[in-house]
Amino acid sequence: MTGKAKYSAEFPIPNALYGFPVRSTIAAGTITDIDTAEAEKVEGVVAVFTHKNAMKFNQVPDAESTNKMTMPKSVLNTTAVKSYGQYIGFVVAETFEQARYAANLVKGTYQKTDPKIDFDTYVDTAYKPDNANGAATDTQRGSMEDGMSNASKTLDITYQTPIEVHNPMEPHATIAVFDGDELTVYDATQMLGATKIAISNTFNIPQEKIRVLAPYIGGGFGSKLRAWDHVMLTIMAAKMLDRPVKTAITRQMMQTNVGLRQLNRQHMRLGATSNGKLTAMSHEVVTHTAVDEVFAEQAGFITRTMYDTPNQLVTHRVFDTNIQVPTWMRAPGETPGSFALECAMDEMADALQMDPIEFRIKNEPKNNPLDGKPFSSRSLIQCMQEGADKFGWSKRKQEPRQNKKDNWLVGYGMAAASRAAPYQESSSRVKLFYGDDGLEAAIEMAATDIGTGTYTIIAQTAAHSLDIPVDRITVTIGDSDLPVTPGSGGSWGAGSFASAVDAVCEKAKDALKKKITGDSTSLTAADELMKAADLKEFQIEATESPSDDSKKYAHFSYGAHFVEVWVDEDLGMIKIPRVLSTSAVGTVLNQKTARSQVVGGIVWGIGQAMTEETTLDKRYGSYVTRTFADYHVPVNLDVGDIEVHFIPEIDEHINRLGVKGIGELGITSVAAAIANAIYNATGKRMRTLPITPAKLVDYKE
Ligand code: MOS
Questions:
Q1: Which atom number of ligand 1 is nearest to the Cα of residue 329?
Q2: Of the residues 297, 664, 665, 668, which should be mutated to test ligand 1's pocket, given the most ligand atoms within 8 Å of the CB?
Q3: Closest of 680, 605, 598, 689 to residue 413, by C-alpha
Q4: What pLDDT, on the 0 to 100 scale, is given for residue 65?
């Protein structure tokens, strides 16, 4: 590590002040008074903002139907407390330590009401939201009743996944610097463009006066897809105090103020014929949202597209709580949804006494069951079969509890994985010029690198197209002033950025050819073209969009996970010595960064299955899990061998390079594969995550 990758908080800004938020100590009620006198006396404190003196923010529109990434945010404009930890104040001081110390001296007095926290108490108030993270709330085909009555085996099971919080290496941080009416914001954001618009909407600052910079981001995972309250507080303070302000939120605030994954309760019903054809499948999801904003995770989405069944019902319901607003988290929808779907498929295979891979192959759809579109590519069967070969699946015994080593029960499990690959429009600029060693190229675009290797794949793509050595390609990203991209999210980053880079480089070569007077047909390298055109420098921009052909197809990445577990039943100890995964994602731009994405996903999948859970105190709505000390993520000792294989796949439709998404595929279905392996080892179906030792020891049929 060299420290060269500077995160948002690390930019030295002369004369900067430090902001530190004050959090509510109740989850529901009204602020009756707020005492800032002690805080104001602290040396170095410049301002203490509360609802009494904060600027008036733009009104937040109907938060259900509006784009969450760009809608304005209103902070400190109310005395109402809607969730624990909500910012009720913002202290600004000369140093970080002074601001933090003073923030602890701000005293809120409240009129408390009973917070709505407990899932079981409020689940009956669930209602149908307008949409499930932009997807259809409900879908239905055929009749579940018919499908279930035609089945020779039926299942009716409920699965549950807990609240989780994002824990990227880099917590959120923002610096706001005004120069006259021009605003520069250094922000840990996955989305430069959307963050700029959200700021513009919040403060009525024209977009062209705002520049958002994020050259490096230490992980996003969805948490950094929208600008949260601290971003707006920092800008507000910089505006009101006429000095730059820097805010780095704490690991504790990462648990309470920047969104979370919802607890999803998922009711699955399956019917199948005795030879393994699905006759019916339903996936009914109920989850919680905030009292003032609806976000419904689309956990049932994966069930709509994965298997062929004539009768299907998928629904999403939400109910209001005093828990902070949920948001996107790596593979939103698929991560909790695949746990329910892929465990249920395993349970049905077991009920039918069929191999789980054979059962899945029997129900492989020809076209996307959701909309009838053909798949741009779908190599799920190859992923399962090749994965099975490499893993040694044939050694698995169908009957549980058959494989014992000393005091350990050994089990094998698998699950199929799928993640939408929503390729997006993106722009890019190339500048060609001569340096000491020959032709060089600079690529510029408002893309982000959230630790995924964006710099690398952009440079590689340009080097390949222009035929210039990769060390003579300079990549500048992380600046909203550069050509617009869709940002890093939804696993579309690599495919969208690389397609734009390839397009702009090819466009540059075509433009150069037109400038050449003689025959240029044999010239292919950018250097030859530049020389033939007698140019010392040249630049051009391009925008690459999904083609009409691309839109005719359904785009998904596929994979399969195979897991070996060792279970000590007396202690409830579970070891995962080995995970083997196959992925089919079209063109792999870079084996190393692609593999790294899948490995990261698998590690988080192990966390999802085994340890991760945000726990709230039902009485107070406060967080029991407040830091890494109690919110457990997997560490090296929890992770055994991980083997990742890419199944060669050519996708001729999705985009010009045939690149599908990888980032979120890796985590999808890992938890199901682990739970299925635990069943194979022990005969115990673990349907509520995380699978703690206590749940395993206390297991009842
Ligand atoms: Mo992803 S949840 O779009 O960062």
A1: 2
A2: 664
A3: 680
A4: 67
Residue 58 exposed, middle or buried by CB count within 10 Å (0-12, 13-18, 19+): middle
Tell me which residues of the chain have a pLDDT lower than 50.
none
Which ligand 1 atom is the nearest neighbour of the CA of 190?
Answer: 4
Characterize 204-226 residue by residue with b for buried, 16 or more Cβ atoms within 10 angstroms of its Cβ, and e for exposed: ebeeebbbbbbbbbbbbbbbbbb
pLDDT at position 573: 96
CB 458 within 8 A of CB 475: yes
For residue range 331-380, list pLDDT tens digits in order. 999 999 999 999 999 999 999 999 999 999 999 999 999 999 999 999 99
The closest alpha carbon to 484, from 539, 443, 431, 428, belongs to 428
- According to DSSP, the residues that pair with 582 across neighbouring strands are 560, 645
175 φ/ψ sector (left φ>0, alpha ψ -120 to 50, else beta): beta
Distance CA 88, CA 498 (A): 43
The Cα 263–Cα 257 span in angstroms is 17
Q: Are 412 and 562 in contact (CB under 8 A)?
A: yes
HSE-up (13 A, CA, CB side) for residue 403: 19
CA gap 295, 293 in Å, rounded: 7
pLDDT at position 388 is 98
Distance, CA of 579 to CA of 597 (rounded, Å): 15
- Helices (H), ranges, 266-333: 301-306
DSSP state of 127: B
492 alpha carbon – ligand 1 mean position (Å): 9
Closest CA to 134 of 207, 66, 72: 66
C-alpha torsion 491→495→500→505, nearest 10: 150
CA–CA gap between residue 416 and residue 668 (Å, rounded): 8
Task: Determine what percent of the chain falls in helix, strand and coil, rounding each to the nearest 5.
Answer: 30, 25, 45
Virtual CA dihedral for 100, 105, 106, 107, nearest 10 degrees? 140
Which residues contact ligand 1 via a Cβ below 6 A?
Answer: 190, 220-222, 225, 328-330, 332, 489-490
End-to-end CA distance of the chain: 50
CA 328 – ligand 1 centroid, Å: 6
The preferred substitution site among 69, 298, 327, 330 for testing ligand 1, maximizing ligand atoms within 8 Å of CB, is 330
Nearest to 416 by CA among 300, 317, 303, 333: 303
Ligand 1 atom 4: residue of nearest CA: 222
Query: How confident is the model over 93-137, as pLDDT tens digits?
Result: 999 999 999 999 999 999 999 999 999 999 999 999 999 999 999
What is the reported pTM? 0.97
Distance from residue 288's CA to the centre of ligand 1 (Å):
20
Query: Peptide bond preceding 577: is omega within 30 degrees of 0, i.e. cis?
Result: no
Residue 58 has a pLDDT of 86
Of 164, 284, 334, 664, catalytic: 664
Please indicate whether residue 649 is annotated as part of the active site: no
| ∠ Cα 51 55 58 (to 5°) | 105
Atom of ligand 1 nearest to the CA of 221: 4
How far apart CA 53 and CA 48 sit, in angstroms, is 9
| Atom number in ligand 1 closest to CA 330 | 2
Distance of alpha carbon 289 from alpha carbon 354, whole angstroms: 39
Q: What is the pLDDT of residue 61?
A: 78
Contact indicator for 430, 540 with CB cutoff of 8 Å = yes
